[in-house]
Give the backbone structure.
Amino acid sequence: MPTIATTSLRSVLVGIYVAAGLSEEEADAVGSHQIEADLYGHSSHGVVMTDWYVDTISRGDVVPGAPLEVIRESASTAVLDAHFGPGHVATARAIPIVVSKAAETGIGAVTIRRQGHVGRLGYYTARIAAEGLIGILTADSGNGPKLVAPLGGREARLGSNPISIAVPSTDHGPVVLDMATAAASGGKVLLARRDGQSLPAGWLMTREGKPSTDPNDFGEGGGALLPLGADQAHKGYGLSFMIEVLSGILTGIGFASSADGRHNDGVFMTAIDIGRFRDLGDFSRDVSAFIEHLKATPLATGHTEIRYPGELGQRKARHSQVHGLSLDRASWDSLDRLAEKLGVAGPSRHADSTSV
């Protein structure tokens, strides 16, 4: 696959987004987020999103330069309105707010409404954990198009409704759980469709409510993703329900399923000061000791190791930072076409890139 240094890829993405109308700061925030998603193996939230992000800017769904306004505030809480600015920018700007509130009161919590797609949730919770706090974040798309059917239904009425929790550790960096409460994210289904691949069983149903492995049944095909959990899907559905309450209803952005609704990510973000409960150093050491305790478990048949949440992504990121980031051919060519259309340099025009 083609490879490119992350610094050069950032330059490509910043050039594209500035040409599309974002400020340099906003463009760097969006591009850096996408690169980190690809580094950690979350390609469904990486550079593959660039065309769509540019489309949301060009049609006015995302507003460059929109302020992050504090609507209501207390010592430990805040309600934030992003005025449909880029979600990556608004949610990142909320981190110092929630961190300072946790430092002051022990627990900080904010809601963010009216913003574009926020991307990979672990990006934000890892940064909260790096401050010596526990970070928790949930997200939902309000009354925008939905992806997931409720348990027992055959029509999409829920988002993929992800959740991320991150905690500090002494030896393993921030330990980050980042997961959708659907069987898979919509982005993964779209990647399979683009690459002509079938889906695993248990991800998707047709518009008639029958099981499907054809990604063309998703979205405009009228089908819907299933809740996480296979024969225990009531658990994934229950999580999704509560995340929609926190990120859709508590934020005030709604819960409907309007196919032509403007994409509108709602976020519920919490930071917890560990030092209010026990010594931060002792906690972080115990998290690492807990990881090693789990890794020492005798292995089941067919398994070669036990990993902690986010470990595989950490490994991928370390490798790509040294050897360059590998992009699939379709994403590479798409970036080149988009860059040419906007009159900026694409990945193939960078000397450190290898298009093979």
About this structure: The two ends are 6 Å apart (CA to CA). The chain has three domains: 1-59+321-355, 65-180+233-275, 184-225. The chain is about 40% helix and 15% strand.
